[in-house]
C-alpha cells in the first residue's frame, strides 16, 4: 500500500482565534475532499479550539511545537496532553525557525517528538539544510545526520518533512528532482530505522510550495505531500493545492 498524501499547512504566527474561525468556516463552505489527500492545519496553539469547533469533518489540525516536558514549572510551554485535550492530531517539531531562533538541537527535537508520541500525537519532524551546506554539496549527509538525531527513540507514527531552509518563505522552490533526491535518501534512512514500515511513512517536502508547483513535486515517488507555509493562509490557495494533488 503506498502512503497517503498529506497536505500539512503551517500558519506560523498568523491568525488570531477569530481569523482562524473565519478561515475554517470558509474552508467548510468550499472544501471538497480530494481522493487520498489528508488535509491538516498547524495553527498557533491559542487558535486550535477555534479550528476544533469550525473545521469541516475529515480535516485534522495540530500545533507548531510541543513541550518536551510532561507538565510543571515550564512557563510558556504547551504540553502534548493539552494539545490532545483540544483535539490536536499532529505537532510539528524541529521547524527551522525553532532551530534557528530558539536554539533547538536535534536532541531537543527528538525529546519533543517522543513526548508527542507518548500522548498519541503524530510528530511532523522537520529537517533540511541551509544554502551554504547545499552549495558545498553536503545537503544529503547533513540532512540525514540531522534526521537521525531528531528521530532518536521515536516510533513509527511519525511524518518527516524535508524543508531546505533556503526555500522556506523565499519563493525559491527546490526542483521536484531535488525534493525526490532527499525524500529517497530519507526513505532509505527510515528503512534502516524502521524496516518495512518505512514504505508506509509520509515524507513531505516544504519550501515555497504553491498551487502551481505542488503537483510536480508531490508527483515524485518518495514525496508523499507537502508542508506549506505562506500559501496556507488563503483558503483559495489551499483549495488550489488540494485540487492539484
Ligand atoms: C514552512 O513554514 O514550513 C514553509 C515551508 O513555508 P513556505 O511554504 O512559506 O516556504
UniProtKB/TrEMBL annotation:
Source organism, top-level taxon: Bacteria
Enzyme class, first EC level, given as a word: isomerase
Catalysed reaction, written as an equation: D-glyceraldehyde 3-phosphate = dihydroxyacetone phosphate
Major localization listed first in the record, in broad terms: cytoplasm
Catalytic residues (positions): 95 (electrophile), 163 (proton acceptor)
EC number per UniProt: 5.3.1.1
Claim: Transferase is one of the keywords in the record: no
InterPro entries xref list: Aldolase_TIM, TIM_sf, TrioseP_Isoase_bac/euk, Triosephosphate_isomerase, Triosephosphate_isomerase_AS
Single GO MF descriptor: triose-phosphate isomerase activity
Keyword entries, A-Z: Cytoplasm, Gluconeogenesis, Glycolysis, Isomerase
Record-linked Gene3D superfamilies: Aldolase class I
Binding locations of substrate: 10-12, 169, 208, 229-230
Pfam families per UniProt: TIM (PF00121)
Subcellular location(s) per record: Cytoplasm
Pathway: Carbohydrate degradation; glycolysis; D-glyceraldehyde 3-phosphate from glycerone phosphate: step 1/1; Carbohydrate biosynthesis; gluconeogenesis
Role of this protein: Involved in the gluconeogenesis. Catalyzes stereospecifically the conversion of dihydroxyacetone phosphate (DHAP) to D-glyceraldehyde-3-phosphate (G3P).
Family designation: Belongs to the triosephosphate isomerase family.
Quaternary structure, from the entry: Homodimer.
Protein name according to UniProt: Triosephosphate isomerase
Amino acid at each position: 500500500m503506498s502512503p497517503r498524501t498529506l497536505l500539512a499547512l503551517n500558519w506560523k504566527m498568523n491568525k488570531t482565534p477569530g481569523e482562524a474561525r473565519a478561515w475554517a468556516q470558509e474552508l467548510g463552505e468550499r472544501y471538497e475532499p480530494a481522493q487520498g489527500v489528508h488535509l491538516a492545519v498547524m495553527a498557533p496553539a491559542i487558535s486550535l479550539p477555534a479550528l476544533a469547533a469550525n473545521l469541516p469533518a475529515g480535516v485534522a489540525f495540530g500545533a507548531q511545537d510541543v513541550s518536551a516536558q510532561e507538565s510543571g514549572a515550564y512557563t510558556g510551554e504547551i504540553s502534548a496532553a493539552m494539545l490532545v485535550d483540544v483535539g490536536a492530531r499532529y505537532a510539528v517539531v524541529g521547524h527551522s525557525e525553532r532551530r534557528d531562533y530558539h536554539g533547538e538541537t536535534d536532541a531537543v527535537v527528538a525529546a519533543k517528538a517522543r513526548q508527542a508520541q507518548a500522548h498519541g500525537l503524530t510528530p511532523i519532524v522537520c529537517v533540511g539544510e541551509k544554502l551554504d551546506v547545499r552549495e558545498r554539496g553536503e545537503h544529503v549527509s547533513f540532512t540525514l545526520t540531522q534526521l537521525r538525531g531528531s528521530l532518536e527513540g521515536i516510533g513509527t507514527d511519525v511524518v518527516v518533512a524535508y524543508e531546505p531552509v533556503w526555500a522556506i518563505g523565499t519563493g525559491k522552490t527546490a526542483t521536484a528532482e531535488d525534493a525526490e533526491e532527499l525524500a529517497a535518501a530519507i526513505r532509505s534512512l527510515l528503512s534502516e530505522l524502521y524496516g518495512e514500515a518505512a514504505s508506509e511513512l509520509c515524507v513531505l517536502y516544504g519550501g515555497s510550495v504553491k498551487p502551481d508547483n505542488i503537483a510536480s513535486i508531490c508527483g515524485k515517488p518518495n514525496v508523499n505531500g507537502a508542508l506549506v507555509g505562506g500559501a496556507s493562509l488563503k483558503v483559495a490557495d489551499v483549495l488550489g493545492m488540494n485540487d492539484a494533488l
